[in-house]
Amino acid sequence: MPTLQTTCCIVGGGPAGVMLGFLLARAGVPVVVIEKHKDFFRDFRGDTVHASTLDLFYELGLLDELLKVPHQKLTSLDGVFGDFTFQAVDFSRVPTHCKFVALMPQWDFLNFVSSQGKKFRTFDLLMEHEAVGLVQENGRIRGVQVKTANGNSEIHADLVVGCDGRHSAMREAAGLALDEIGVPIDVLWFRISRRPNEANAGLGNFNYGKAIILINRGDYFQAGMIIAKDSFDSVKSLGLPAFRENVRRIVPFLGDRVDELTDWAQIKLLSVQINRLRQWYRPGLLCIGDAAHAMSPAGGVGINLAIQDAVAAGNLLALPLRQKQVSEMLLRRVQKRREFPVRVTQMLQCGIHNLLQRVFRNHSAVRVPTVLRALMRLPGRQQLLGRMIGVGVRPEHIRTGLG
Question: Residue 207's pLDDT is what?
């Protein structure tokens, strides 16, 4: 296969990669996005498109089109602590155009963004192209080694951007050092049918030393049981009937549907990680999104931080890429711009994990702490949390004049 030459090669067709590819192509930069799978369909991916991300599409003039993609609107986050139901988060007053979080299947979101990218002649998306190594010359990254169904090849580029997730091959090939932050939880994702008008508890149902998150996916719930770290084998050893009984006890209204779970293959383990690179770049290479910082599913912020990374990278690098003047200093500026929001968000997620550990210690029916009832009565609390989750720390904006 012949070697392909481009200005920017983006490895990974997730939210960060596809969004950055679209933004660079919009700014006139020749860009190739490669994705190892044949399509974007992957079950149990993050599906929450937060208000800050929706604002980016408003700035791009694409919000109305995006919202034609099937989705549910989440205007608040409720929780259930034992028999006490409370509204923890309210998005109705966030300072954005959309006062909600959109629950949109990630494959639909990625298909939408890539379709926008394909409107530009400088955008190329290559499916079933797996990056297996880096092309290096005199201490600089010059491209990627690619494996396809038709054989091996190389893509040469002025800049390679690693957007290939928490198990990034590009990060490993570059030898970038990763700092792991201890996480006490994992999540078991599964589907269970949903009836019309049934509420979801996006914040969680807490009882008997466990927690279950319910995300409204229309005719079914995407459910996540939070378990202690590395305890899935122990959960399985107790048998599927015990798992179904736990679901029934924690969320009683699902009791007549737990028998839909007939095989462990229906239950997918998400091994939760929080980590971040000490340095996100090398000459000719930049990592963003999960490749630079894996996030916990707490708050559903991972996809949105990845997209914010892509916007920051697009704003800072589009013009230098066009001029073929991307320096190590510019790559350092991307990390400096995005590292602060990442650190703050990860610190907050670790705080949530510490609270969950307290839940795990009590295996009997929980009694609602007086302090929780008091907190629920504090004025403005739901709106403050809505802003923290829906908008986040230092949201990015589309820089004008690059399209």
Answer: 83
List phi, psi (to 5°) of 153. -155, -175
Q: What is the pLDDT of residues 274-332, one digit of tens each?
A: 999 999 999 999 999 999 999 998 888 999 999 999 999 999 999 999 999 999 999 99
Domain membership flag for residue 376? no
The closest of 100, 78, 99, 73 to 88, measured between CA atoms, is 78
Q: How confident is the model at residue 204 (pLDDT cuts 50, 70, 90)?
A: confident
Buried b (16+ CB within 10 A) or exposed e, 282-294: bebbbbbbbbbbb
The CA–CA distances, whole Å, from 105 to 112, 150, 232, 266, 268 equal 11, 31, 26, 18, 17
Assigned token pair, 38: 């044949």
Strand-pair partners of 185: 228
Q: Kindly state whether residue 402 falls inside one of the protein's structural domains.
A: no
At 97, the amino acid letter reads H
Residue 126's contacts (CB-CB under 8 Å, 6 or more residues apart) are 32, 33, 34, 35
- CATH number of the domain enclosing 154: 3.50.50.60
Nearest-angstrom CA–CA distance, 135 and 9 = 12
What is the per-residue pLDDT across 142-152, written as a single tens digit (0 to 9) for each? 999 999 988 99
Number of domains in the chain: 2
The CA–CA distances, whole Å, from 259 to 57, 233, 248, 254, 266 equal 41, 21, 10, 10, 12
- Is the whole-model pTM more than 0.90? yes
Q: How far is residue 110's CA from residue 20's CA, in Å, rounded to a whole number? A: 12
**C-alpha to C-alpha distance for 309 and 16, rounded to whole angstroms:** 7
Domain assignment present for residue 326? The answer is yes
